[in-house]
Amino acid sequence: MEQKYRQMAKRALDDLYARYWTDADGGHILPTHCGVVVDRPRMIWETAMLLIAMETYYDATGDEETAKRIAATWRYLKTCFTYEQMAAGFGQEPNLALDDTGWDIMTYWMAWRFTGDPTALRLVRECTLCAYAHFKDGTLENGCWYNDWAQYNDQWKSSYIVSLLLTALKYCRDRKGTEQESAELLEQTLTLCRWVERDFRRDRCQTFRCGRQDGGDYTVDVTDNLYWIDYNKDRENKPERFGPSGGTRQNDIFELGSVSALFANMGMAALNVTLSEMLGDPAAMKRALETSASIERVYNLNGAYLNDRDPHTDATMLRDYVLTILATDRATDAQRDMLFRTADHIFENGQNSGGLYYPWWSCVLRPGEPIPERYARCKPLVENMMVNATSVTMICGAALLEKYGFAPGVPAGSARRSTRSTCF
To answer: Is the pTM of this model over 0.90?
Structure first.
């Protein structure tokens, strides 16, 4: 079988390495801050965006050189941050807010997987538990804040937490019966999973009494089984003082300003598959399939994925989504073809621009064609390392799906399929 997407992914990663890799200090991803290459990393999450693309490519190909690059970058990161910085220090770099912490924890889990470093494994457990304790709203039943008040003179809650929750579930599943097993981590993670389903899932009609800033009510009546991106509690600078942020414009899912997020929806679908398999819970599997069906419907723009909310991170949960949904008989051919078409668009844009992988995934720009007007004010995104890495992750995800015997237009019955998740 032709390995079209594997070849595309290799070319795309090589383009990123040409810009964002150095062989100095044993080799590592170049540190960036706000997308600009700097002397020393201030955050881990920025490096994590390229690491996620590399891990997805490794799973698609088994390429040992990629595994060596991941291990080398982990060794480098450990020289740049103390254990205390990596495990805690919330509200400060590198664990500035909950999303930064989540991508960091994904990095620690990846480091454990590729190096067997016990420090990385310990960081997964300790950093997650410390984050839960630091960001919780009184009790975990009330969920976690996205940020400390001092950062913005404002606080809200966010489905960005999915990166912590899914990684914590993997830890609990894979370390069960070992000396690293943590009943505390599992219990707290399950509590937070229930909170996310209660406050973020768009699955019912709900009226928020006195929810507007002027004290008026508003009603959310959307049942697409996707997830809100943010949730407000006594928030002063949004139209909705209480309830989902964007609840008064509930169908606004578009580029650069959505009330939902592709990565969160993919992540919650993968999380629910994982919960179903760990707990034998058919309701969780039902939720996963409902969410994945809505991703195909709501996030379909010209047959490709809508890069809706955060072009720096919108593909971060794709690997998990491929392994739990798309590469199994839980998905339809149309759902798989959306990923392939997205990868085609991104790759063509990268080749037309000399190896820059743009954040618009629904169209192909020809050489010399102007940047879409909606992105004109965000032109720095074009050369931003995290944005490029996120787009390339989509191509690597297509290569991973191809590994399981799928291809555009090939009926699922002719592919190698499984009804269970691949270990991830």
So the answer is: yes
